[in-house]
Amino acid sequence: FEGLRARAVISVVIFHFFSSLLPFGYLGVDVFFVLSGFLISLVLENKSNEMPTYTNFYFKRIYIFPLLLLIVLICSIYTV
After folding, report:
1. Among 8, 9, 11, which Cα is nearest to 22's?
2. Which among 12, 19, 34, 48 has the fewest CB atoms less than 10 Å away?
3. Rounded to an integer, what is the distance from CA 64 to the centroid of its chain?
């Protein structure tokens, strides 16, 4: 499914830059969201026996925070 999601993203990018080459490239957004929803449901079904907690949720996503701070800093400098 990851390959199909990648193709969907690439079709949208091609559509944005060269709309004449791929006239229905915008449909890649729909395909991407459908596949993502399907994959998320599979992951949640496989973890259905685990009880979700807030600490577990945030602990799994803490690695994104430094990159978020970097992007906010770059965007703040760029807009000034």
Report:
1. 11
2. 48
3. 13
Domain boundaries, the chain: 2-79
* Backbone torsions φ then ψ of 49, nearest 5 degrees: -85, -10
Residue 76 confidence (pLDDT)? 95
**Closest among 35, 47, 41 to 2, alpha carbons compared:** 35
Q: How far is CA 22 from CA 14, 28, 40, 60, 63, in A?
A: 7, 11, 28, 38, 36
Confidence at 74, pLDDT banded by 50, 70, 90: very high
pLDDT digits (tens, 9 = 90+) for 15-66: 888 888 888 888 888 988 898 888 888 887 777 677 778 888 888 888 889 9
Length of the chain: 80
